[in-house]
Amino acid sequence: MTEAELILRDFLESVLKERGSKQKEVRIKEINSDGANYTSLLFSVNVETFDKELKLFAKVADVADEARRVLNCDNLFCTEKFVYNQLIPLYNSLQKDLDEEHKFIFPEFYGFNNEFGKETVILENLVESGYKPYSRFKSMDWDHGRICVEAIARFHALSFALRKSDPEGFQKIAQNLKNTFDKDAFDQTTKDQFKDMAETALSVLKQEECRDKIRKLLFETDLMYKYNQPLSTPVLAHGDYKISNLLFKRKGHNLKAVVVDYQTVHTGCPVGDLLYFIFLGSDEHFRRLYYDKLINHYYTSLEEALKRLDVDPVEVYPRENFESDLKESLPFVIVTALSALPNVLADVETVQKWNSECGVEDFIKPKFSDLYIERFRGIINDFVRWNVI
């Protein structure tokens, strides 16, 4: 039995005891994430009690000290604990009178262990209820893109509703979840390593003029610092809203989606989540067909969600603010394409294990797959066509 399983069994026993459930048998099986999860080991858990069977899902922290420091994992786990223990109850209270079809659905939460090095979250196992992941290597189709955009619009609407119902409480949460990115925190070696990574990616581009323009954006405009801050309208943003962080269930023509990861929730800009989702989960062909349609669908879905929560869209996030934020945020997609997309599209055998003792360079210099190169070129083609660069 692995150390992670021992940690899980010990914490599970306390969770069941607190719920008044007496276990007869516990079956735990590790889940292979195929490179889609970096900070934790994943487990399916079947618990037979004296009155029912519980089908659960668990994540147990599995991060080496150096990775934990470089990637600020302590903050990730603390954020996840806050979301499940405090934010979700607030949000569910705000949407308690909505029809089920209009709610933002959270997985049922069983418990969070915050002990350092043993951070564990236990949830319902949605896979046992028929939900399935979408391949991180496959470009989204319209149906999955549409339902994901509706979901993040509802998530953002709850943030606006919380600010309306409890301005002081929202402000306190927003301050606590403020992104603390410090542009002066990196030493010269780290900066040089990021430049090396950028140059490696830029080398796959044929147009030298594009490379020069991208270099100017990356290294002369403080993109990383600027776009980690809210723009016109702050919300509690998801922060890692990609298609592999959702599970899907189809019944007839109806498709449902549930978001399953909340480690990166922060005070940010609504369009940050939207652009992150689109460009990390689609190829150039999809965007030619559906980019504008998906952007419009997000704002329409946001308007509808806000009205159902008795919030006036014009007062909190008028269309002109949305369009302005969208235009101002587009250049940051390049940083996302350099820093996040390589890991999303990494071949399983090349994925960096965060539970191994590695140096900083291992985390900011990912290997580029052939699919990544194709997608990166597609993003740059879009940006040239749209006059972003």
TrEMBL record:
It holds the Pfam family EcKL. SMART domains: CHK. Residues 121-308 form the CHK kinase-like domain. Gene3D superfamilies: 3.90.1200.10. PANTHER family: BHLH DOMAIN-CONTAINING PROTEIN, PROTEIN KINASE-LIKE DOMAIN-CONTAINING. This is (African queen) hypothetical protein. It comes from Danaus chrysippus.
